[in-house]
Amino acid sequence: MAATPRNDEPLVELTDTGLSAGIEAEDLGPSHRAPFDPELIDVYPRATTIDLMLQRLKRGLIDLQPDFQRRSGIWNETAQSRLIESLLLRIALPTIYVAEEADDSWTVVDGVQRLTTIVRFVKPEAAGLEPLTLRNLEYLDYNGKTFEDLPGRMQTRILETELSLLLIRKGTPEEARFNIFTRINTGGLPLSQQELRHALIPGPARDLLATLAESLFFLYATTHSVSPSRMAERELCLRFLAFWMTPPERYVTQDFDGFLREAMRHINGLTPSERLDLERRFYRAMLTSARVFGEHAFRKQFAGSARRYPINKALFEVQAVTLAQCTPAEAKILCQRASLVEEKFKKLMNDDLAFFDAISSGTGDADKVNYRFQSMKDLFREVLESTNA
């Protein structure tokens, strides 16, 4: 069903703590993913000890994703201490899910904080972490102690503790790997799609997205309104890069998540100078978007309403990418005619139901992607050619 433009309160994405993430919740529509041969799925349950896991970590064969710790959801000292207490009490931990990479290393997808806590307590120097001192334990009298302070038998108990792993082996097709982790990603607070992409696609793209999302240009254009707790801000940056590298008219898939995954892999394959060029284009797009749309950049606007809506992902793509495609001279004119841009954009939002639908419902549909980009190009062209500005 097509969306209808209203001034209703839109649904928003939530942070780890249940607060607004500053981004409108998105309906990507049905996803038509490429099929894969189920016979190629290779999932291997196995047990290993904490001591062996630490050896793999020291050899660089485990990726703990240090920048993947949820900034607002990371466990505090008490929670970490009580996990260690569970080990000392011989209480089994939940299964840890890992993906095997081409070089035989493991990427931890579910269980990062559990493993990080263990590493921080037993061998913090192996991951460059601050040592953990136990506190607020419920049953054992080891408050104020580090691993080295524990009796030898307790140190041995921790090192010989068996961990239950579910290993997705490297021969498993990528689409199947994402499908598996999406299916198991239901307990507690499920990972967002960007968190899953971040976990399963290591490489320079991770660092680039973090750099863009933390830049003053992005923060300025979004008025510091996007919460970083679920990597929502990194997904916005990725969507810009994806449509910059693959023009909208070449977007023909109905699998939007797969499109973004492919963009991350493509970024990983670029040279440092090519990634630097992407970074510069992104910064210019953010600055121009802020100058043209002001505090309403990437947000819905309606005639007769001064209301400020949350950021809309589809509008972020279409406004930022289309402005990035403008020449410096065109961008300057659009900035000078910002009031006319606002007038025409509000008219587009009010009068063109197809455009409203293209940014509100089934936004991953190829026809809707092309429609919203073409509509924005036409709007900017009208402003540039206007004689009444």
UniProtKB/TrEMBL annotation:
All copies of domain GmrSD restriction endonucleases N-terminal, residue ranges: 55-201
Domain of life (superkingdom): Bacteria
Xref: InterPro entries: GmrSD_N
Protein name: DUF262 domain-containing protein
Native source organism of the sequence: Streptomyces coeruleorubidus
